[in-house]
Each structure stands twice: as C-alpha cells, then as structure tokens.
Amino acid sequence: MANFKNFCGSRDHTISRRGFFSAAAAGAAAFADMTRLDLLGSSALAGEMKKQQKRVILLWLAGGASQLETWDPKPGAATGGPFRSIQTAVPGVHITELMPKMAARMNHTLAIRSLNTRNGDHGSGAKLMMRGRKDEANVKFPDLGAVIAKEMGRADSKVPDYVTFYTQTEGRTMAPGDAGFLGSRYGPMELTTNNQPDNIKRLDGITELDHQQRADLRDLLSKQFAQGRTSPTLGSQNEAYQRVRGLMASDKLFDVSQEPDRIRDKYGRGQFGEQVLIARRLVEAGVPFVRVARAWWDSHGQNFETHQEMVPELDQVMSALIDDLKDRGLLEHTMIITLAEFGRTPAINPSLGRDHFGNAWSCSLTGPGIKPGAYGKTDATGNKVIEGETDAAKLFATIYSALGINPHKNYYLGSRPIPLVEPGTEAIKEVLA
Amino acid sequence: MANPEKLKLAKEHSHKAITFSIARVPNSTRVYLGCSDFMVYEADVTAGKFEPKELYAHSSYVTGVALTGKTLVSGSYDGKLTWYDTEAKKVIRSDEVHAKWIRGVFASRDGKTIASVADDMVCRLWDGETGKMLHELRGHAEKTPHGFGSMLYTAAFSPDGKYIATADKVAKILVWEVETGKRVAELEAPIMYTWDPVQRLHSIGGIRSLAFTPNGETLAVGGTGKIGNIDHLEAKARVELFDWSAQKRLAEYASDKSQGIVNHLEYAPDGSWLLAAGGANEGFLILLDADAKKVLRQEKAGMHVHDAVMSENAETIVLAGHNKIAVYEMKG
Asked: Which CATH number fits domain A55-200+255-431: 1.10.287, 3.30.470, 3.30.1150, 3.40.720?
C-alpha cells in the first residue's frame, strides 16, 4: 500500500494526527518524533487529513513564464514560436510539447488561459498576483499564503503555517511573502539561502535535556505568572514559545535526504525539485501553505532556449508532485498552483525573446475543488482574451472557493470589514467541482 | 576583389518572417531562405521588388538550408531533413532524421557531403547525391554540467572537405575526419557559455558559428562573452581563433561596440579577413583581419542577423535575419 512505503512498521506509530500532536506537545521525545514522515505517511494520518482542511503548494514561476510555451500554445501562428502542441489526457485540450508528463496528468489540472491582469511590471505584478488585489493607501492586504495560513492553520500546530522558498536572488525582493494587515503571526518562514531554515538548531553547548528542562521551567513560571491574569499578549507569547519549540524539532522536515532515492529521482536532483519535495513533506506534516519560487523566467532574449531548459524541469517536478501526493492520498486535499507576476508577449522580439505581458496569459490549478481541463480562450495569436476573462480578484475568488473558503467573508481591520476578495468579485463557477 | 573599406548597404528588404538560414545559388543572386513561418522560400535579392516565392513547408522553424548541386537540403526544428529538386521544383523526400531540433544544415564546398546538427547532440553526415547517411558523429554531452539538456548548434566543413568541426551550448568544439567519422581534435571556448547559479539558475550562450581558414589550418569560433544579465544577450560579440590540430587558442576578439551572438563566420576567399555577423536586439556586421587582432569594419546591421552568404569574389554579402534581408557590397 502506497501510504506505508516509508512506514517504520511500529504499531506505536500508527496514531492519529491529533493524537500525535497531543503527544508532541508532551515532551522532547514526542517533538523528535513529530518530524518522522514515516509516521505521517501512514494511511491513518492521511485519513485524518481528509477530514481536515486543505493545503496549498504554490509554484511561483518568477519573472514570468511564457503561456505560449506552457499552457496556451499557438503552433503555426506567427507568434507561436517553434514548439508543437500535444494532446493531453483531457480530450480537446492541448499544451506545449515541452510538458508531456503534465499532458498525461491533465485530468488533475485546470489551465486558466484567460488571465488579463493588465500589469506588466515585475514588482507591482508580483504583489497583485500574490494578494489578488492592489494595496490601498492605508491597507496592506495579506497575500495568499497568509490567508491560507489564517484559514487553514491550527492554533495548536507546531509546524509553520506558511513557508516560502526563494533561493535565486533575481526578483526575490519584488515578491516577498507578506501577511499585510494580518500581522506577523501569519507571515512566512522565508528560506532564501538553502533548503533548511537557519538558526533553528539547538546550540551545541546545550543538551536536549537542558533545553527541555529550560522549557519546562519557563512553562512553569509562565503558568504561575498567568494565574489570575487574562492577557492575550501572555497567551500569544506562550504560543510563540511552543511554535519555536516545534520549529526546532522540525528540521528533519526540511531534510530531503530523509526521502528514498526513488522519490528523489522522480522530482529530480536540482534545487527546484528538491524544494518541491520538501514542500510535499511540509504539507504532509500539516503546513497549510508552501510557496516554491523558481526564478528566473524573464526571457527577453532567447525565449525558446530558456523555455527549452526550464519547462521540462517544471514538467518533471510538477508531475512528480502530483503522483507523489496521489500515492499518499493527499492530492484531493492539496492544491498545486502555478502562477507568476505575468506572462509573456506573443510578439517575438529581435533577440528571439518575449517581453512582459499581463493582458492574456495563463496559470494552472491542480487538485481539490476544480474541474480539470482548460478554461478561457485567447485569440489566434494569443494577444487578447476572447472568452472567460479572468482578473486577479476572480482568480483568487476561484482559489478560495475551491478550497472551501468563502471568498466574501470579512476580515476586520479595527472595525472596518474587509472582504477576502474585491467586492463584487465572483469565482469562476464553471471550473468549480 | 572585395575591399572592406568600400563596404556599404546596397539594398534592404523587409520580410514577414524571421529568416534563420540562407543558401546562395552559385554565381547568381538567387537565394533560398529558411524561415520562422516554417516555409522555405526562393528569392532574388537584387530584384527591384523583393518577392520571395514559397517552395514548401516544414512543421517548425527552418534553421538550415544548403545546396548540393541542384538539390536543396533543408532542416528544421521538426527534426526533418527535406531534399528538394530545384529544377523539377519538387520535394524528393522528407525524413525525420533527428530526435530533437535540427540547428543547422551545412554542405561541403564540393557539395558531396551534407551535415546536419541537432539537439539530440548528434551530427549526421549524408551523401549529397544519394542522401544516404555516411556517419553519425557522437561525442557532445547530452546534458550540461548542470543537468539540463544541451544543444548542438553548429558545424563547418574544412575547405578541402576532409574535416568537419561541430560546436555545442557548453562551448565544446569537436573536429572530426569526414571519411572515417573519427574524432581528431577537441577544443573549448568556455567564456561563450554562461551559467548563472545565483540570480537566475539557468544558462545562455553557446557557440553559434564556426569557419575554417581557406588553408584549413585555423578554426574561427563565434558566440558571445560572459553575460551578466542572462535575461538579455547583452554581452560583447566574441570570436576566438584556434590552431585546431595543435588544439591551441591563437586569438580572442571581443567587440567594443557590437553586442550579442556571432551567428555567422566566414573567411574571405583569400583568407585576408573574417566576416562575423549576428546580434541581440540589434544586429552587427564585423570584418576582422585574418588574425582577429584588428577590426577592419564594424557596422550596425539593422536587424539581428541569423545567417549570411558571400558571393564567390566576396564583393557581395547578403545578411538574413529578423524580418529583413540586407545586401552589402564592397566592390574594389
């Protein structure tokens, strides 16, 4: 059975996630066990997850991948470029020949080919597509990761709610994770230098016993201090300590070498593949939102060479992720999104490149709540959306709806109600399962 | 005889498609063009009105055209080599001979041998008359050192037809004996391949052009220098010269004015100068002295140049590229 492939075989490890977290909170030994994915890979835990909320892995194609070389090919058009299109598992839907593995898995994926976000600027485009709306003068909106962290995260979780990988330097400062008015509680754990968080390891000079005893002492003093007091700040501080302990124990989640070679080979041994495999480990362990940024797609020169190099990697990694989640019974609870700040011009410039283009481009949604296939249509040259125009707000309303989140629910900034998406925006009903 | 000092633009034609490859009918101004609209055209570049005539189509970009007698051989990103009888005006055969994009098709000077290079990293040699495959030249790595698919961009025959050089994305050059298919030399021009491990995590560049001197002793290699921002091709156009049999670099030239990739190299018939043409957002035409030490002429070409042909006496140069065909003259 797929879910038991990594199972250690111990009856003790066949426990529910809730029970597991309770145990985890009890002491250092349990904290150490929390990071064991052989545990989390059990069918019992998958069953628990099914009853719970959804997860999201965002593959952020930083710099702007070309829709014509991915989800919306135009072979034979003057703007089409040299790549052919291929039939997918969904009758009548064709994608680029550079993605044969995804073509075979298109029965899990929806390509939205009708994004018109009217923004061709890296910085503001990235903000728009991570938040679904533009900031107002006095309101900084939370990004998708922060909203998912708030909606899907658990107060008693010992793992981070929002993790983002962005290792390449280009464009990183233009697309930071940002919790906006939700505050730092829902902000991301950002990994920018390597695949493992910095500074979460216990100092060498402190033994695990010392560390645990210090935590116990802090807990005891805190409880004594809290007697007779009702302070939200106090509660928040205690929660923060618990989460830090959780993070310190979760270093193995970020350790890709814990995975068998067979799985690592499927994702590929490159940085992107390894980070997406870690993302799977994280969502499996209960992290609601992980973004893996793969920079840099900004192909002003040599667009076809660049996509010839990068799209097959995306094809391998994304298809491996789908298969892996499916094998573990998690695909119906984990949405995979491919998105960027914009797409690329249909016009091919003299440098055989494509430039920034926000008027007719594509993204994809895989997993729960959506109908696979293709939605929306661009004209024969790819310059204009002619069917199903979708802006950032509509896309976000669709994502929230597919995940079971009411896109019209309000957050409150002081007494001001702030709906999750721009008022008046509806999800694309045709694509919701 | 051609005089570089007299170089001037004689004609410029607009063309609806990007022209990636051009071949000239000997002792004439008629050319064959391989284009981005998947078509192969025939045209007269000196005609008052430039009216390219469609001959036949591939199913992707046509990146190589070469003449062997009365037969035109074209290659495309569709992996097919098409043999076309220019007198009977009909396709003789069209075969899928490479598993990946064909990057170029080249004819030996005597027309007896045709070479095709492709991203399957194989150079295949063909009998120019019968179309029979003579050799498969394998030796270029299929993957870059960073695990991505490599590309085999270009090739050139020595003037006597005894050797062929091939060059790839990671800037490795192999020289082969045509008769036996045996590898006889290996060279590198690593500056022409840029891998960005920090900012963008992908690569750009590669060797895009090769040319032997008329005596066959020196091999010129064209590409671009290290690129700081690989979103663009904004690095100095670059040429390196090798004594290929000694496997020794003789000279390095980096343009002070022209940016982009050198897509075409060709020596003057007497070997006194070297034509380098290419581009990025703009294009260039450079005439270097035979040692690549001195620039004789350096001009903007008005388009990114993908290919070029010279007349027998080198007095006429035809550049083909981004939506244009340009005719330069340098009559002494």
From this structure: 3.40.720
